[in-house]
Amino acid sequence: xxxxxxxxxxxxxxxxxxxxxxxxxxxxxxxxxxxxxxxxxxxxxxxxxxxxxxxxxxxxxxxxxxxxxxxxxxxxxxxxxxxxxxxxxxxxxxxxxxxxxxxxxxxxxxxxxxxxxxxxxxxxxxxxxxxxxxxxxxxxxxxxxxxxxxxxxxxxxxxxxxxxxxxxxxxxxxxxxxxxxxxxxxxxxxxxxxxxxxxxxxxxxxxxxxxxxxxxxxxxxxxxxxxxxxxxxxxxxxxxxxxxxxxxxxxxxxxxx
Length: 257
Hints:
The protein is mainly alpha-helical. The protein is 67% helix and 0% strand.
């Protein structure tokens, strides 16, 4: 995600630090808008289609401008690295505050979860998406989407910092730089204390599913980029991703406990 600093960019930064002019801010924002587009693309993958990408982009642009105002060039840190955490944080905080998951989607997720528990007890094994769909009268895609939506909603809730009113500083999701003790919502989907158990779950996926999970969560490629790598359409990659997340549900749900 990092890029070499050009003489023109250095000049822009020098002008910005001296003048803080709107014109220079606009030029720098345009230069780094690719960061906003990248994080909008990644985060929107976890969200229902009802969530507007334009709204996510607006939140990301606010995060980018916030990063621009607060960045200190003297620090040993590239701006695109710093801005990425501000952008991601602004988007996720905005989603949490606006309660992006509609009531109907929450109700459906609860219905699917309850059905999964009932079927697991009767079958003595985790039910398939097809079995849950048949039990609740939904399509397989609706079941898989419901599981994905519920997982991301739980991650957002888990990531929210307690509001004790002790500080006026903005410390929502993604606003602090990462350290060895914290991870992003995306990383929570592939990390847990017993990582070996999760790897065992991933090993049960088919080749395409393993590749999509690896490229999306570890290599941080977008679904479109993964499609280009595998020679598949973006919609097909989205379908593979959705099915893989459903298969990993039992392992991933332990992260939310």
